[in-house]
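About this split. The held-out portion is used to measure sequence recovery: a designer receives only the C-alpha cells and must propose an amino acid at every position. Recovery is the fraction of positions where the proposal matches the reference. Here is one held-out target exactly as it appears in the evaluation file.
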C-alpha cells in the first residue's frame, strides 16, 4: 500500500499509518531525497543518517497519534502544524510517552505527491 498522497490534508494520517505499521521503507518514502529531520532538538539528520534513524526507532515498535492543527499551502510547498504523541520505550525498555507540536514543510513532487522536506516534531522548542 502506498502512503503517498496528492492531498496535503491526508498526508499526516497516511504518515501515521506507515509509522504505526513499522515499515521503515514506507516511512522513508514519505520524505524527499534531501529531507531534513530534527527528531532531537538541535540535531538535524538528512540522507542515510535520517533513513537509518527511522529504522532504529521503528524497531522499538512505537505507536503514533497525530492530528494536524493547521495547514498552509502555496504552490508546491506546504506548512503543517501537527499535534502528536508517540508511545514507545526508552533505552532501558521502560514505557515512554513522547509528545510535541510538529512544524513540517512538505514539497509536492513531480509525481504530484506530498513529501516531507523538513520534519521538526519539536518545532515549538
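Reference sequence for scoring:
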Amino acid at each position: 500500500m502506498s502512503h503517498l498522497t496528492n492531498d496535503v490534508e491526508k498526508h499526516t494520517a497516511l504518515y501515521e499509518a506507515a509509522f504505526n505499521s513499522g515499515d521503515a521503507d514506507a516511512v522513508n518514502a514519505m520524505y524527499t531525497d534531501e529531507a531534513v529531520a530534527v527528531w532531537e532538538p538541535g540535531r538535524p539528520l538528512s540522507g542515510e543518517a535520517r533513513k537509518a534513524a527511522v529504522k532504529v526507532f521503528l524497531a522499538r515498535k512505537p505507536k503514533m497519534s497525530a492530528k494536524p492543527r493547521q495547514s498552509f499551502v502555496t504552490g508546491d510547498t506546504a506548512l503543517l502544524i501537527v499535534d502528536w504523541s508517540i508511545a514507545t520505550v526508552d533505552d532501558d525498555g521502560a514505557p515512554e510517552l513522547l509528545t510535541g507540536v510538529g512544524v513540517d514543510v512538505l514539497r509536492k513532487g513531480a509525481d504530484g505527491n506530498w513529501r516531507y522536506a523538513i520534519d521538526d516534531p519539536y518545532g515549538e522548542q
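Annotator remark: The chain is about 25% helix and 50% strand.
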